[in-house]
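Help wanted!
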Amino acid sequence: VARLLLIGAGLIGASFALAARRAGLFASIVAYDVDAAVADRALRVGAVDEIAPAIATATQTADAVLIAVPPSQIVPSVVAVVQARADRDAVLFDVGSVKAPVLSGLTAALGRLPARFVPCHPMAGAAVAGPEGADPALFEGRTVFLTPTSATDRAAIAQVGDYWSGCGARVRIVEAELHDRAVAATSHLPHLVAAAFAARFASDEGRALLDFAGPGFRDFTRIAGSDPALWRDILTANGDGVVAELDGLLRRLTALRDELASTAVAAELESTLREGRRARQAFSVGGGDEPGGRG
Amino acid sequence: VARLLLIGAGLIGASFALAARRAGLFASIVAYDVDAAVADRALRVGAVDEIAPAIATATQTADAVLIAVPPSQIVPSVVAVVQARADRDAVLFDVGSVKAPVLSGLTAALGRLPARFVPCHPMAGAAVAGPEGADPALFEGRTVFLTPTSATDRAAIAQVGDYWSGCGARVRIVEAELHDRAVAATSHLPHLVAAAFAARFASDEGRALLDFAGPGFRDFTRIAGSDPALWRDILTANGDGVVAELDGLLRRLTALRDELASTAVAAELESTLREGRRARQAFSVGGGDEPGGRG
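Answered by r_m:
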């Protein structure tokens, strides 16, 4: 007779609710969203059973609380839950893309990390934001990173891991700092670069050039279509990691720029193209997609 | 009883041969490749009818000559054809990704532009290089840019345009300088950036981070899997245009870097993310694919 409280009924939260429902993980699911219309829509698409008017009351009867809100709202939401139910033992988990700032923010706000809060990051998303885009299969075959600390309750980690496995995901436990550095390199920097690249085509002069764009442009800029408010939040939260990776990229691009602007033999260019292809092929082995093309 | 001489029997040349054969554009197709094994393989996959041992002799009997070689080899190839058959009126066309340097290179080498040489750039490619990847449908629905000058013979332009239309492509005539600037922005810069980005993951330390890479990484780096030798050639040939676009991107990225490294409100970041999405959506309308995702 477990009961889930879902705080934040957008794409990720509503998808978890649908997947959990299909897997029979909870007897009932109640949703709270700061935007009442979003909670209503999650109810209408059948992701949740009822709507909670406030966190404080709903949390009293919940056995598990999923905090599926933008990065900047995670710490205040966890604090609100913890303060409303200091004596009960529900498990708490989130879905934020950046983990270390959540841990330090909670320690600063509460004086300690709540033992039964399990930090999570599911590597999943979809083109349509909001509960309308919710998909019970969103986490199937995808990795969910858990970044507990030594203060995190072992039973809570196992419980939350079982939730994600029940949704079809692969669970991996890593340190929060390693996680944040890794996603800065593999996910956050590409989002920043794709946006900065695509922004050049927002002017009338730039838009005229889109007639010359092909499939290479399409794939390279796909992530520039992501939600700007969410990504401002993510990039700001992981600012140090993103800046460190960006500095490396700026160094490599500047060296290539100077070589292209000179009459030098394109040695740096050729070795970068070869290294880039080698790394891409190493990824493809795991990723199972086809590389290359002239675009 | 038209006869096509194909110089360069790789992916693009062999695909044109297959498409032309299917459309019945030529009575026979003969191939020359500086690498005899490549010409052999084009013969084996059924793209061509015979192999020419040398350009000079094969060009005497050809009504059309397609020069499908890497950018740095286009001018020498056209010069070889023109010098071997000064008095005959075959049409010549190429498939290089950069056009203005071909025009200036030919003018420098021959003292004039050959009137029946029609510069072309088909916006098509595939993951598998060489004649094995050849596909008669490669140009269907794709744009082929023609960049003739005032010195180019009108009948030759019409003839070559008909060839590409026969292969299912849309033909667009543009100025070479505009073409080169536009593809520097939409195609060549993304290839350079994707390679420089992916090269960071070629080390052992970098490769370990690929466990954290998802679909956003996959799409952003797809073009980093392209042929390094071909792309060194393309990027070097269009060096000025690529450097101009790269300078703009470096400026935008440096401004974002400084904002992320400071405690400033992320105003530049948010407006870049919004502009990037707006431009991406403008492209999507034409491109017909789905944007976004959290990746």
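OP: Thanks! One thing I noticed: DSSP finds twelve helices and nine strands in chain A.
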